[in-house]
Structure formats: structure tokens, C-alpha cells
Amino acid sequence: VEKKLILEEKITVLQQQNEELRARIEQNTVRTRQLSEENANLQEHVEKEVKEKKRLSRTNEELLWKLMGGDTTSPKRSPSAPSTPFYRCSSGSSSPAKVKTVRR
Question: Compositionally biased, Polar residues: which spans (predicted)?
Fold first, then answer.
């Protein structure tokens, strides 16, 4: 009889531990879903930022090309006009270490 009481008490303790573990699993599942959604949103935001950066880089290159005289529709600079510096990022990078001053 004493052995039976001890086993029933162990069963009760184990059932309580089991319920606690189930609750923790449910909390972890909910948190995992939240983090997955947040990750997907952040990935989408990063992709949009990358596309915008590429678009701005293309626009910048186009404007630099026009400044260099590549645009045949724009008026040419007079040879006597003073040379003014403008800045160009090498390899499309916006890193200040790669910015060069170019004279026209």
C-alpha cells in the first residue's frame, strides 16, 4: 500500500511536469511563428532597400555619364569654362573610402 502511494505521488508530479512542458512548447511555438513572420517582413524590407539602392545607383551613373558629356542632347561645356570637381563613387559603392574627386 505504501509503495502504491509513493508511485501515485510520482505520477502526479510527472503529470504536472508534463503539463508545464506542454505549456512551454506552446509558448515556444507561438514565439517561433512570431519570429518567422518578423523575419519574412525584414527580408522583404531588405529586398526593397536593395532594389532602391540599385535604382539610385543606376540614376547616379546616368547623371554622371551626362555630366561627363555623354548626353548628346545637353549643351557642351565651353573649353574656357573653369573645371569644377564632382564626386564619383568607384564600383557603385557609397563608401567614403572609395569616393574620388574627378576633374572635368
Answer: 71-83
Length of the chain: 104
Nine cell digits for residue 26: 506552446
Name the domain count of the chain.
1
Domain membership flag for residue 45: yes
**Average pLDDT, stretch 11-37?**
98
Residue 19 sits at the vertex; the CA angle it makes with 14 and 20, to the nearest 5 degrees, is: 95
Query: What does the DSSP 8-state code read for residue 74?
Result: S
Structural domain boundaries, residue 5 = 1-70
Answer for the pair 90, 100: CB distance below 8 angstroms, yes or no: yes
Q: What is the pLDDT of residues 40-58, one digit of tens each?
A: 999 999 999 999 999 999 9
**Is 88 among the domain residues?**
no
Task: Judge whether 84 lies within some domain.
Answer: no
